[in-house]
């Protein structure tokens, strides 16, 4: 990849061949960014990037590499002039993280540390970090907004996300040139409407929707619903499911925000918009859960005000604000597939909370971002992806029109 134009400003996307990464790369190309993807392909398939190039008609520089290997990182930072990084690369199975915590801390925390140190050396100080709603632990408000306290997190995976957020808050407080957007995903689901891109979970899925898909394909006998005695509309767990394409546009909006910060930084002034935002009001009650706890003013740890010497470290929730219970998801998938989905109620899963839905007002206010896809879209797009790619990227593409 030495023949690229060295004056060109590139965005490095780590983990960019993965489920959320590849959908984000597609939207970045559509927004005319020049992209380099670095991925170790442990939980990704290069075919995903081939599909992105096909759908956008644009090309991607791909570098196979591992963020835990500083040599791999040095090579790519020597070869390209980056102005920003979007950091997805991580392993993310909650259950597995309790079995092999050292692997999770090595890959997710040490790997991130290597990446940030190399970024610092090459003066690349604009970063979008894919974080997770799991950093809120047992939320002290519902829907959750960015003023909610962080932790305690109930699993090593979630702790790696919290630790990396804390590292980034310290980096921003130490150096005014760093600008960071922490994007806290709620429950990513769905697939590109073309049916050409989607999630390829390995083994028995931990997450609900991939599990439901396996049952619909006849690979698993029935959905096990983890508890029906929660304080929710029908007793089953309520979550904020967000379409992967909405997550992708959220990352483009965050990158645009960093471009704004960068140019303001160059002019040595921060615009009014970069001063602490007005205290976000909790959104109205969701379809299945209502909030009674008032939100408190943004603590400075969440948002460095323009008065502080530090750079900007801004956290945003990426969710829809609408909660769906497990039973509601099952009926939405039955409607989208016109099939019956067998299930049985079993005991609660360790570490689960009853309700977790987002207040994404701040991302709308400050990033101008809004989720566009409905639950019906999420179900329909997932099923189209599954029908056309019964074995994910490993198998043949079935030409099965709707
Ligand atoms: C959703 C709901 C379960 C499976 C996790 C991670 C979080 C993030 C998103 C990475 C819950 C219920 C599930 C099943 C079920 N990942 N369920 N039967 O736990 O909200 O979040 O994925 O960032 O960090 O914690 O998602 O899909 O596992 O569960 O009843 O077979 O479905 O109890 O209510 P979760 P999930």
UniProtKB/TrEMBL annotation:
Its cofactor is NAD(+). GO terms for cellular component: cytosol. Keywords: Carbohydrate metabolism, Galactose metabolism, Isomerase, NAD. In the N-terminal section; belongs to the NAD(P)-dependent epimerase/dehydratase family. In the C-terminal section; belongs to the aldose epimerase family. Residues 258-307 are annotated as: Disordered. GO terms for biological process: galactose metabolic process. It catalyses: UDP-alpha-D-glucose = UDP-alpha-D-galactose. It comes from Absidia glauca (Pin mould). The chain holds residues 109 to 510 of 510 of the full protein. Mutarotase converts alpha-aldose to the beta-anomer. It is active on D-glucose, L-arabinose, D-xylose, D-galactose, maltose and lactose. Residues 258-267 have a biased composition (Basic and acidic residues). Residues 271-307 have a biased composition (Low complexity). GO terms for molecular function: UDP-glucose 4-epimerase activity. Residues 11-260 form the NAD-dependent epimerase/dehydratase domain. This is NAD-dependent epimerase/dehydratase domain-containing protein. Pathway: Carbohydrate metabolism; galactose metabolism; Carbohydrate metabolism; hexose metabolism. Signal peptide: none annotated.
């Amino acid at each position: 990849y030495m023949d690229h134009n060295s004056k060109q400003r590139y965005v490095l996307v780590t983990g960019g061949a993965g489920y959320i990464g590849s959908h984000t790369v597609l939207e970045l190309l559509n927004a005319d960014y020049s992209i380099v993807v670095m991925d170790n392909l442990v939980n990704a398939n290069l075919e995903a990037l081939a599909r992105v190039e096909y759908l956008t008609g644009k090309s991607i520089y791909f570098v196979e590499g591992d963020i835990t290997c500083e040599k791999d990182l040095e090579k790519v930072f020597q070869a390209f002039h980056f102005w920003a990084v979007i950091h997805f690369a991580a392993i993310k199975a909650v259950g597995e993280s309790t079995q092999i915590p050292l692997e999770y801390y090595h890959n997710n925390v040490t790997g991130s540390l290597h990446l940030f140190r190399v970024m610092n050396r090459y003066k690349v100080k604009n970063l979008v970090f894919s974080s997770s709603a799991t950093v809120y632990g047992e939320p002290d408000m519902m829907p959750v907004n960015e003023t909610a306290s962080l932790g305690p997190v109930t699993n090593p995976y979630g702790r790696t996300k919290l630790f990396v957020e804390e590292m980034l808050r310290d980096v921003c407080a130490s150096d005014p040139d760093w600008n960071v957007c922490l994007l806290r995903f709620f429950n990513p689901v769905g697939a590109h409407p073309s049916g050409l891109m989607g999630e390829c979970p390995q083994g028995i899925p931990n997450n609900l929707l991939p599990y439901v898909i396996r049952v619909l394909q006849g690979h698993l006998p029935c959905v096990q619903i983890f508890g029906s005695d929660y304080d929710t509309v029908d007793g089953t767990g309520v979550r904020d499911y967000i379409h992967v394409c909405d997550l992708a546009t959220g990352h483009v909006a965050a990158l645009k925000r960093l471009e704004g910060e960068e140019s303001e930084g160059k002019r040595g002034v921060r615009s009014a918009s970069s001063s602490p935002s007005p205290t976000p009001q909790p959104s109205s009650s969701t379809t299945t859960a209502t909030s009674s706890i008032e939100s408190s003013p943004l603590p400075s740890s969440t948002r460095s005000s323009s008065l502080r010497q530090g750079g900007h470290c801004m956290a945003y929730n990426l969710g829809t604000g609408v909660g769906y219970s497990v039973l509601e998801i099952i009926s939405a998938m039955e409607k989208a597939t016109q099939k019956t989905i067998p299930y049985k109620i079993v005991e609660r899963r360790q570490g689960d909370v009853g309700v977790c839905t987002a207040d994404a007002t701040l991302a709308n206010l400050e990033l101008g971002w809004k989720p566009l896809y409905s639950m019906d879209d999420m179900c329909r797009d997932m099923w189209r992806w599954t029908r056309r790619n019964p074995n994910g990227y490993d198998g043949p593409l079935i030409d099965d029109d709707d």
